[in-house]
Amino acid sequence: MNVAEDLDKLLENLPFFIQENLKNHSKKDKLIEIVMDLGRRPEARFTTGPQYLSQKIISWQDIDYTTKRISEFSDENRAGIERTLHRISCIRNRQYLINGLTCRVGRAIFGTISIIRDLLESGQSLLILGKPGVGKTTIIREIARVLADEMEKRVIIVDTSNEIAGDSDVPHSGIGRARRMQVSKTEFQHQIMIEAVENHMPEVIIIDEIGTELEALAARTIAEKGVQLVGTTHGNCLENLIKNPSLSDLIGGIQYVTLSDDEAKRRGTQKSILERKAYPAFQIAIEINKQNSWTVHENVKNSIDSLLRGNSSVSQIRQLSINEKTTIKYKKLQKNFLSLFKNSNNFKNIIQFNSNNWTILNQQNQIKSRNLKTKKLLIYTYSLSNNLVKEAVYKLGLKLLLTKEIKKATIIIGLKKHLKQNLKLKKLAKQRNIPIYTVNQSSVYQVTKLLQSLIC
C-alpha cells in the first residue's frame, strides 16, 4: 500500500517544541492525532498508544500560534490546512475562547480497498459501519478514487466537513477524478445529496457519516433513482442500525406487524412480530472490525430478515495479510431475536422489553448460566406443561432431559408469575446454585427462544 500524508505540512503549523519532538520520532508513520489542551502537556496518539511529547505545559500563546496558521473554524468547530487532508478540531470554554485543539492526521492510502474490489465492481450500494477512528473516511476516499479513475464512473462526493477531499476549494488528489460538493452546514447535507443527483448526473454518490433521519431518507430516494451509493455510518454491526429508529431506513426500516392466528401458527411465532418494512437502500454492508479484518454481509435484505426472525445468518470475514493476500472465511452467526432488544429502549412503544419474555431470577448464578451449553442439561419445569417443553426441544433438535427432582436439575424453567411467589423453591435453587429462568406466557415460542439463547 502507498501512503500520502503530507505530515510536514501539519507539523509546521504547531509550536516549535512539538515539531522538534515529532519530526524525527520513530513512530511518526503511526501517528493518529496530536492533542493540545491548555495547562496540560502536549500528547501524541499513535496506533500503539498515547505518548507525551514534552515536559512543557501548553499556554494560550501556543494555542494562538496554531490557530492563526490554519483556516477559520466552521460552525462545527473544525478547520483544515490548504491542499491537505489534515483536520484540526477545537474545544471552547464558556466565553467561546479556544482552550484545546485536536490535530488529526489525514492520509490517502492507496490499495486499502483491494479487499473489497469485487464488491465495488458489482455496482451495488455499499454501507460501511464502524466506530469513530477506525478508518471509514480513509476507505471511502480510496473507493472514490478507484471508482472514478480505474472504473471510469461519474462520481460525486458529498463532503460535509471537508474530511474526504480536504479543506480547500481544490480537492485533494487522493480522490482522483471524482468531483466534490461541499456542504455549508451539517443540517443541509440531505439537501445537497438530492441536489447532486438532480443537477450533476452521477453514477455514484459518496456520503460520509449518515447520521439523521432526513439523510437516511435522502439515501433511500437516491437509491430509488438507480444511483449507486457508498456511505458510512457509526455503529459496530447491523444490529446497531436495527435498534436506531432514525437510521433503520438505510436497511429497509422496521415495523410492528400483527399476524393472524393461522399465520402465527404456521411460522411458529407469537402474533406480534417485527419485520422489515421495505427494500434496503444499501444492498451490501461492511463492518470494519479491525484495520485488516472486515465482516461482509453480501445480502443485507437476507441478513436483516434472519436477525429479526432469530435465525442463523452467514457472513464473510475478509482479512488482508501482510503480503497483501486476501483470505475469505464464512462464519455462521446464531442470533437470538430477543437478545437484540433486551436492553434497548428504542422500540419501547412496540414491545416492552423491560419485562422480558424470559428472565433469570437468581442473578448470582448468571455467570454460571453462560456455561450451560457445555453441560448436559436436566430441566425441572414449574407451572409449565412437560409436553410444551418437549415440543420446544423437538423444534430445536436438541437432546435435553426433563427431571421431576429439583436436586438433580441443571436449570429450572417456569412461569414468571408463579415462580416469583415460590420463595421456598428460590431458596433451594440458591443453595444448590441452580439458575432459574422464567417465561411470561406458557407458549412454545417463548420456551423455544429461551432454550435457543441458552444452548446456541
CATH architecture of the largest domain: 3-Layer(aba) Sandwich
Percentage of residues in helical conformation: 25-40%
**Domains, number:** 3
Which regions contain 5 or more consecutive residues with pLDDT less than 50?
A: 335-374
At the fold tier of CATH, the topology name of the largest domain is Rossmann fold
DSSP summary, beta strand count:
24
Radius of gyration: 27 Å
Largest beta sheet, briefly? Answer: 9 strands, mixed
Distance between the termini: 40 Å
Tally of separate helices: 16
Structural class, by secondary structure, is alpha/beta
Major sheet: arrangement of strands: 11-10-12-13-9-16-17-18-19
Q: Report the β-strand fraction as a percent range.
A: 25-35%
Mean pLDDT: 83
Describe the 3D structure.
The structure is a single chain. The protein is α/β, with parallel strands linked by helices. The chain has three domains: 103 residues, Beta-Lactamase (2-Layer Sandwich); 234 residues, Rossmann fold (3-Layer(aba) Sandwich), CATH 3.40.50; 98 residues, Response regulator (Rossmann fold, 3-Layer(aba) Sandwich), CATH 3.40.50.2300. Helix content is 29%, strand content 27%. It contains 16 helices and 24 strands. The strands form five sheets. Strands 11-10-12-13-9-16-17-18-19 form a nine-stranded mixed sheet, with helices on both faces. A six-stranded antiparallel sheet has the order 4-3-2-7-6-5, covered by helices on one side. Strands 20-24-23-21-22 form a five-stranded mixed sheet. Strand 16 and strand 17 form a beta hairpin. The longest helix is centred in the N-terminal third of the chain and has 15 residues. The chain is globular. Keywords: ATP-binding, Chloroplast, Nucleotide-binding, Plastid.
